[in-house]
Amino acid sequence: MAHADEAALFNKDESKVDWHDKALWFVRQKRDKSAHKVKGWETLRDLASAIKANVMSNLDNYLVQFEENAQKNGVTVHWAADAEEHNKIVHSILQQTNVKKVVKSKSMLTEECHLNPYLEANGIEVVDTDLGERIVQLAKEVPSHIVLPAIHKTKEEVDVLFQKHLGTKPSNGDPQYLTNEARKHLRDKFLKADAAITGVNFAVADTGGIVVCTNEGNADMGAHLAKVHIACMGMEKLIPQEKHLGIFLRLLARSATGQPITTYSSHFNKPAPGTEMHIVIVDNGRTEQLNREDFRASLHCIRCGACMNTCPIYRRSGGHSYKATIPGPIGSILSPGKDLTKHSDLPFASTLCGSCSDVCPVKINIHEQLYKWRQVIVKDVPQPVVKKTVLKIAGRVLANSKMYGFAGKSARFILKHAPRFVTYSKFNAWGEARDLPEVKDDNFDTWYKKRQKHE
Ligand code: SF4
């Protein structure tokens, strides 16, 4: 189903949509308050944007530098061209170390590669340890948001889910009780796991170390208890030097949740004695995106989720409606690069208001890229005949002032005099949920001329 149809389904539950909208707007407001407290916020954004642009222009060098330094630290570095290779590498590490139980902290890359089903099909238990991720894993769903994976679920729904899977008592959605129960359940999984998989927020080229940010400490708990730590990263996660972390860490937490700092910003540089540490660097279409000049900046993304929280379309259509691992505005410029035909509806799921670009901590020109993808799509993807014909006619009318004036006059007449069932038919999506504004007799041009005469 197209995004609009999925969104229509989500909109059937009006109270849930309102609540989803308000919850995300609340996070957006927290972000604003937190950002406004930082003097030089805009300078931080400029610096982050410039650093990321530098990384993308010299990615080959930084990647090699990072690999060399990580290897010097005793870390094994692997390279994966695509999702399949990534999954095979992770599986082979687990096989070689005889691992059967894995705990995993939040990693959108492993979602992108569909690692969980791959490992499960190979007889390995994978438990997501981020609370939101665990909720969607138990519900057999995928995250609907990159920072708040279960934001589409109410606490009452989580209550029912935990009763079914964790044997909890009915609590009427008491968040404290539910969190405590999840904590007990996950602690047992941490203690029994043989390996921990984490994502990577930042990979530092000049040290070979990685930084993983979580609010629950689950990445640390997993990596410190297990004998094998596998960190999976997209190749765009690099920053040149450790000193640059100060810029990105300040931007990330504030943009994501409005916190001054993520609760745990953990630095992993080398394996502890008696343990193994692996880093899997994944391309999976990133080189192609790097090659697209108009869309290269989409690789600057630090996955804070701010563009989703502010987007009026995302807030009222829900993350699952995008049918992509990364939903929302940033997903809508990344996904067409992976499969243009499949995701050709996503760049149109936007008002182009530009709010996403305004809040983006690394200043990605998201709304401009959405508009550029639209231009690519109308050229490269076959469009429905009706849409093509209507746009062709509209183009002619808009290019000719006489035709435009005549069309306006006719439309005003029809809207004023046609019976309601004609104006509010299924052909008028605008009128499905709202009344049209009152139709005036004159257009602006006529009104203006009359006013001039009068004066
Ligand atoms: S595009 Fe910008 S605002 Fe959106 S998730 Fe990425 S860094 Fe955050």
Automatic annotation (TrEMBL):
One of its GO terms (molecular function) is 4 iron, 4 sulfur cluster binding. Pfam families: Fer4_8, LUD_dom. Keywords: 4Fe-4S, Electron transport, Iron, Iron-sulfur, Metal-binding, Repeat, Transport. Gene3D superfamilies: Alpha-helical ferredoxin, NagB/RpiA/CoA transferase-like. Residues 291-312 form the 4Fe-4S ferredoxin-type domain. GO terms for biological process: lactate metabolic process. It comes from the Bacteria. Transmembrane segments: none annotated. PANTHER family: LACTATE UTILIZATION PROTEIN B. This is 4Fe-4S ferredoxin.
